[in-house]
Design brief:
An eight-stranded parallel β-sheet has the order 1-2-3-4-5-6-7-8. Helices cover 40% and strands 13% of the residues. It has helices spanning 22-35, 52-59, 79-88, 108-116, 143-159, 171-180, 197-206, 218-226, 250-263, 268-282, and strands at 3-9, 37-44, 66-72, 92-95, 121-123, 186-188, 210-213, 239-240. α3 (79-88) packs parallel to α4. It is built from ten helices and eight strands. It has two domains: 3-128 and 164-282, TIM Barrel (Alpha-Beta Barrel), CATH 3.20.20; 129-163, no CATH class.
Length: 293
């Protein structure tokens, strides 16, 4: 089984945030190779990432395995900056937590250049996860949750509040972008995210180059099965595998999707598309397949 993982965050040691990231990438490469991930998009830069320069320097140790994807803020990164990132070696972009709607015209310069340079853009969708899932646990009854809560409060003290809104990160904004930039490869994360599944399905249904990754954890995975999001509401060719989890949990994520695909009775061809080919086609590693008369 070959896996294309479109959603891997640059690893970070939260207990020692200033530590060198290179050993963490070495560990990520070891994990990916053991699991069967042949290509992984590593999201680099942004609020918690290394600099673009340092990130690309580290990732270049594994050119056959990792695809560098730059985390950008389109308030600051415009078309010329996207060109610079491409020249550095970045082959995709990731956007999250913008100050305005994703389809604000001021962001179009970055999108236009990404379309020209054939750089897919991964957009976070919906509410940003907070590290502590209150639907599953609570600090009053779980010591690990209590420790996570204390750590998050400490981080808020270090970084301060964020100007973010789930309304600005709706799948419906992808419809605008796809219509304006029809050759731009667009990936919405988390199947659109909880509360947005129908919007995501509607956009994927009608826009040629809009796709959704299936990352987001066990709640979204359960919804994907219960609400028939895989292969029914959203076509198989419009879905991608993404882990979006700590490095040492990726194998669990893969195992859960193996079970989901078996439960859904997917064919070998469907599974191959979800694990590998859809992502490989988007990033130009495989030629798109079309039916013949």
């Amino acid at each position: 089984m070959k896996i294309f993982d479109v959603h891997i965050h640059f690893p970070r040691d939260w207990d020692n945030p200033d530590a060198d990231r290179e050993p963490l990438i070495d560990h990520l490469a070891e994990v990916c190779e053991r699991i069967g991930i042949w290509k992984g998009c590593v999201l680099t830069g942004g609020r918690f990432g290394p600099s673009y320069e340092r990130g690309i320097e580290i990732l270049q140790k594994y050119p056959e395995l990792f695809i560098p994807v730059a985390v950008i803020d389109p308030e600051e990164i415009r078309g010329a900056d996207v060109r610079r990132l491409h020249d550095m070696g970045y082959r995709g972009l990731k956007i999250i937590g913008t100050a305005r709607d994703y389809d604000d015209p001021d962001y179009f310069s970055a999108y236009a250049k990404a379309e020209e340079l054939q750089m897919p853009i991964l957009f976070h969708m919906g509410v940003i996860g907070g590290g502590l899932d209150y639907s599953r646990t609570h600090p009053r009854r779980d010591p690990r949750a209590a420790e996570t809560y204390r750590r998050m409060m400490q981080m808020q003290g270090l970084f301060g509040p964020r100007n973010v809104s789930a309304l600005r990160m709706s799948p419906l904004h992808l419809d605008t972008i796809a219509s304006r930039f029809p050759r731009l490869r667009i990936i919405g994360a988390h199947l659109g995210n909880q509360g947005n599944y129908e919007y995501a399905a509607s956009v994927a249904r009608w826009r040629h180059h809009v796709y959704f990754d299936m990352s987001g954890g066990e709640t979204i995975e359960r919804h994907a099965v219960e609400r028939r999001l895989i292969g029914v509401e959203i076509g198989i060719e419009k879905l991608l595998f993404g882990s979006d989890c700590p490095v040492d949990e990726i194998h669990e994520h893969v195992a859960r999707f193996e079970s989901i695909f078996e439960q859904l009775g997917l064919s070998d061809d469907d599974c191959e598309r979800l694990w590998w080919r859809n992502g490989a086609e988007i990033y130009g590693l495989e030629e798109p397949a079309f039916a013949q008369e």
